[in-house]
Amino acid sequence: MSHSKADFISYKDFLQKSTKPSVSPCIWKGNDIMEQLDLSLSSDFMGDGRGAVSLINKDTGDAYGVSPNINALVQVLKPGEHNNPHKHSNMALFIVFEGKGYSVIDGEKIEWEKGDVFFSPAWLEHEHCNSSDSENAILYTIQDVPTVSGMGAWFLEEPVGTKPQHVVEDEVTDKDSILPEK
């Protein structure tokens, strides 16, 4: 083991360096979100018919969240779309903005519609399905990815049955991963 990365600073310096900049309030306008969702659908980078866009507060820097500890994304499922079963080490709170469908979380089917809120704890297998033949389903999703990632404990298994990916910059090497290769 190399000691070239080891160093010392005074506790006073540590406390000063641990102070983070404040995060400003911000707003993401609905029309802008919908425009970005439409663009994300055309790329379908996850390969399961799901478009998604993350909401970012620039004050969070590399945390890429709405706050230093929380991230938010908006995802759309086209009519009849069913995403791949997956799991991750972060929790997810879903707010149904539009449409209807169901999710299967740890084997339990949860039917949802506009206005509903449901929760998926960390590392439980889950999947989402838009049960409509004609309308998109839009889910606002609140997660704790910046917190989990900051602790070096963010893992993804997508789809279920593939090797779990430890989402650390030097370790994302799976060619089939939804994550960019580093």
Automatic annotation (TrEMBL):
**Keyword line:** Dioxygenase, Oxidoreductase
Q: Key word Oxidoreductase present in the record?
A: yes
Indicate whether Oxidoreductase appears among the record's keywords.
Answer: yes
Superkingdom of origin organism: Bacteria
Annotated Gene Ontology MF terms? dioxygenase activity
Question: Which InterPro entries is this protein grouped with?
Answer: Cupin_2, GDO-like, RmlC-like_jellyroll, RmlC_Cupin_sf
Q: Where would I find the Cupin type-2 domain in this sequence?
A: 74-139
UniProt xrefs under SUPFAM superfamilies: RmlC-like cupins (SSF51182)
Note the PANTHER family from the entry: 1,2-DIOXYGENASE PROTEIN-RELATED, CUPIN
Under what name is this protein listed?
A: Gentisate 1,2-dioxygenase
Q: Which organism is it from?
A: Alteribacillus iranensis
